[in-house]
Amino acid sequence: MCRWMAYQGDVVYLESLLFEQEHSLVHQSLSAKKSEVTVNADGFGLGWYDERSEPGLYHEILPAWSDSNLKSLARHIKSGLFFAHVRASTGTATSRSNCHPFSYKNWLFMHNGQVGGYESIRYQLDRLIPESLYGERQGATDSEVIFLLMIANGLEQDPEQAIADTLAQILDLMKQKDIQEPLRFTSVVSNGDEMIAVRFSSDEQAPSLYCKAFDTHIVIGSEPLELSNQGWTLVPAGHLAKIKGNQYQIQALPDLMKLSA
Amino acid sequence: MCRWMAYQGDVVYLESLLFEQEHSLVHQSLSAKKSEVTVNADGFGLGWYDERSEPGLYHEILPAWSDSNLKSLARHIKSGLFFAHVRASTGTATSRSNCHPFSYKNWLFMHNGQVGGYESIRYQLDRLIPESLYGERQGATDSEVIFLLMIANGLEQDPEQAIADTLAQILDLMKQKDIQEPLRFTSVVSNGDEMIAVRFSSDEQAPSLYCKAFDTHIVIGSEPLELSNQGWTLVPAGHLAKIKGNQYQIQALPDLMKLSA
Amino acid sequence: MCRWMAYQGDVVYLESLLFEQEHSLVHQSLSAKKSEVTVNADGFGLGWYDERSEPGLYHEILPAWSDSNLKSLARHIKSGLFFAHVRASTGTATSRSNCHPFSYKNWLFMHNGQVGGYESIRYQLDRLIPESLYGERQGATDSEVIFLLMIANGLEQDPEQAIADTLAQILDLMKQKDIQEPLRFTSVVSNGDEMIAVRFSSDEQAPSLYCKAFDTHIVIGSEPLELSNQGWTLVPAGHLAKIKGNQYQIQALPDLMKLSA
Amino acid sequence: MCRWMAYQGDVVYLESLLFEQEHSLVHQSLSAKKSEVTVNADGFGLGWYDERSEPGLYHEILPAWSDSNLKSLARHIKSGLFFAHVRASTGTATSRSNCHPFSYKNWLFMHNGQVGGYESIRYQLDRLIPESLYGERQGATDSEVIFLLMIANGLEQDPEQAIADTLAQILDLMKQKDIQEPLRFTSVVSNGDEMIAVRFSSDEQAPSLYCKAFDTHIVIGSEPLELSNQGWTLVPAGHLAKIKGNQYQIQALPDLMKLSA
User: Fold this and answer.
1) D196 pLDDT band (50/70/90 cuts)?
2) Is residue A149 part of a domain?
3) For a pLDDT cut of 90, what percent of chain C falls above it?
4) Would you say the pTM of this structure is higher than 0.95?
5) Are C64 and C29 a contacting pair, CB within 8 Å?
6) Residues 6 or more apart in contact with residue A178 via CB below 8 angstroms
7) Are A182 and A205 in contact (CB under 8 A)?
8) HSE (side-chain half, CA atoms, 13 Å) at B224
9) Does residue C55 have a cis peptide bond before it, meaning omega lies within 30 degrees of 0?
10) For residue range D45-91, what is the model confidence (pLDDT) as tens digits?
């Protein structure tokens, strides 16, 4: 499983979250407590918003802890809304094209989880991408195709519904192929203004999703950034967290009944 | 444009062809004489046959001339049939998944050229890949999809016809989309036993393809490996060269009339 | 030979200099007009000043033109004083440790040129590095050892004299070993406040150094950033350019007579 | 701590040792049982002997488990004496120059351990390298300088004594600087004909070194290649194992009393 964190709040240097926390993502990438795969060394990525219309992106195939560029970039790049992701491949190659976050116009998306039986429905999933978006497909991961389907399903107009519709589409394909493995999906998406994080699984083991409001910012991610969980809210499975300004609210995924059917 | 060479003959160390020729592929990668793009520094690859059932593969995103591993591997790997390719990207990313040669079972394929208007027909091309082969699609290049279509069109049974049918398929799509740019295709494919190299373009400027028989081997490639062209046969456009044992023969592509229509 | 450019002036996005010039450094890296080596594809680097006390750094071993990160970083990083360098190795390995610019505290340094017979005096040069600075030696290049000697010779107190003393030290070693190849050195150094660029060679062929004052900034580099040389001043060999605020002045290197002796 | 294994015996494909063991080095690189550092993802390397006079070398900065080239190379390269190493950096950069094994003429060397207080005696250690060998220094690791000192101390004539003398030299420098951290050194060296593996530490915690004779070959390494330790001999600290043909013998390091003084 991958790990990720997203930050919204006062403008800070990225290093204050990426390196200076006792359980920062870079430290986590070396050893895992709450996830199944030991190491997150199959590439990493950053996405951040600033005054530009589209977010900045940095993808690297080295482990995060050994990339000297990351140390310097995190010391010099400031942002009030940024994403970071460390990858543990579930099969696809370690290449920059397969690193999160993925971007589209002013949107960023990243993901931890897996599409059960992905290799056996990749053909069908790719065929759901409309021609107008097909040029965006750069790699071969499940995460990228999920993001493109979210866009196709109206992410820009109604992100919550687009996410629910995309999960339903994938579950439907999995049912047609009689796939028994689960669809697990803990993700976050942003347009630069607000963030929507989702925790979902078709079985009982949704990957963890933690959220915490600090004085000047909110952090959400696959694991707490502190060794203690104190003050970190575990978002319930089947729910999403909407983060805007200094507030977050947790609500059920739209159409959750349908997804669980 | 990319450059490539293929060798068939007595077993030799790869370095004898890759480094020790006055106009070797590694030297060519630094400066071009006969091709349009100055530098071939967007990744390279090797494929070679030995006693194993499937060929060895080595792909790297560094320029060939600066990869210290290549020097050592070429000094220690021996083969009687091998491919080498230096890439100059026409747009897609520099990643190992996009490096030639591509492989499938005991087959190798590499390519120099371009599908005119590729981005506008990539959607249609990918949809021609049958479900059974779709899992082989790793990157986003035109070369890889051409190879998968060749397999779908019967490469294992009748390679010449499969190549011709694939070119016809692509030209047909290009016509439907009213693409004016040409389809250029200078390639080689092998099953480990024989090689078939093709020189084709839908316009008058097919990328060059040179062939030469030496005492103990045959070399075919996008450029001669000697600064002089002496003894190097330029394969005519619309033709293919079949290389088996110590012999090569040049013949017209099947259905050439149809392709030129 | 390498190529480089340095910018001082109004705060701009790096892309305005790195990509949006008709003869930008990234374009130059693909094909050279004024330098001897065709391609600058053996790594590149950026260094930039912002509000932090020490400069930001980004080093990469891929060719500059094919690094997708560089495109995004250059679109999102702003600076009023920055360095960029594209490398063509004269022998040492392509690794991040060997990429320019080099940094020390608030100082940046980058370089085009070569120490004649470097391999035969590397032993002596490294032994001139004082113990207190030796931990800074990361790679094996001549450029890095030159920078460390400049620091040892008082760069922080009197940069012009430190540069002249360092050149004298190296020339002295070369004389002791009876090296006939020249010492060529076109470089720039900054403390974040001003820049000092030097053009020097022990023979008649000092690598080029061009400078131009625009309305809001000054650019200095190994080549003009425009295809026309109009308005670009060629700094004479044996001279340095001091750039502070919106002004530059050109003067002879200290002790030039001694260096030419 | 790093991990490594060395093989001597019948010619085999490298994959039979690197991938097909239940506790192979590539599996080990993902999770450690007996060593302190969790992950060995800071580069890896191979060295192998064949008919060439000097060994083949392959170094990569990616984690071993995610390098697609390694899978293919290990399937196609055969050897009767080879080294493999997975690195966990104790501070120096992840670059190919810093990856083991190191080579010199027909010699290979690799190492697990650390020179206590290395940064504070690196200056002195580098100055012990004779001028004739100094050109071999490519990186900045303690391992590389140890190997160069071993050569300077007569590795080619009397490897056991050269190793002991080198350890004594380093311990002497550490004593002069009053370094309290230990010198730990579990290594193997070969000339292509025999292997000498050493297990040493100046404190009580020498890194493990296991050896096992199979019917047709001998394996020695930092950990057993089987989950069970059965049949694996733990070489005692302060001892070396000499492996030649199908035999190994364990004996005390020369001058061990002096080293422990």
Assistant:
1) very high
2) no
3) 70
4) no
5) yes
6) none
7) yes
8) 14
9) no
10) 999 999 999 999 999 888 877 788 999 999 999 999 999 998 776 66
| Structure ipTM | 0.91
Helices (H), A78-224: 118-128, 131-134, 142-152, 159-176
- B75 CB neighbours in chain D (<8 A) are 52, 56
Question: Could you tell me the residue range of the domain that residue C24 belongs to?
Answer: 3-113+188-259
Q: Decide: D100 and D85 in contact? Cβ < 8 Å.
A: yes
Of D31, D207, D6, D195, the residue nearest D113 (C-alpha): D207
Task: Tell me if A200 is assigned to some domain.
Answer: yes
Share of chain D above pLDDT 70, in %: 92
CATH number at residue C42: 3.60.20.10
Which residues of C fall within a CB distance of 8 Å from B62? 61-62, 94
Sorting pLDDT into bands at 50, 70 and 90, what band is A63?
confident
D183 Cβ contact partners less than 8 Å away, ≥ 6 residues apart: D113, D114, D115, D116, D167, D170, D171, D174, D200, D201, D202
Q: Is the N-terminal amide bond of A159 cis, ω within 30° of 0?
A: no
Q: Is residue C60 part of a domain?
A: yes
Tell me what pLDDT residue A36 has.
40
Q: Which of B16, B62, B76 to mutate to test the interface with D (most CBs of D within 10 A)?
A: B76
- Residues C150, C151, C157, C159: what is their CA dihedral angle, to the nearest 10 degrees? 30
Q: Which amino acid is at B12?
A: V
Mean pLDDT of B203-229: 91
List the alpha helices (DSSP H) in C114-243. 118-128, 131-134, 142-152, 159-176
The string of pLDDT tens digits covering residues C91-111 is 666 777 778 899 999 999 999
Domain membership flag for residue D131: no
Position A30 confidence tier, pLDDT thresholds 50, 70, 90 = low
At C32, list the tokens.
């050279």
CA distance B8 to B247: 10
pLDDT beyond 50 at D2: yes
Instruction: State the chains in contact with B (3 or more Cβ–Cβ pairs under 8 Å).
Output: A, C, D
Task: Give how many domains chain A has, as a whole number.
Answer: 1
Rounded CA gap, D254 and D239, in Å?
A: 9
Q: What angle, 0 to 180 degrees and rounded to 10, lies between the N-to-C axes of helices B159-176 and B142-152? A: 120
Handedness of CA B77, B83, B88, B91 (dihedral sign): negative
| Contact residues, chain A, for B134 at CB < 8 Å | 122-123, 126
pLDDT tens readout for residues B55-106: 999 998 888 777 889 999 999 999 999 999 987 766 666 677 778 899 999 9
To the nearest whole Å, the CA of B72 is away from the closest chain C CA by: 14
Predicted confidence band of residue C204 (pLDDT cuts 50, 70, 90) = very high
Of residues A98 and A222, more confidently modeled = A222
The rounded distance, in Å, linking the Cα atoms of B207 and B194 is: 22
Contact between chains at D134 and C140 (C-beta distance less than 8 A):
no
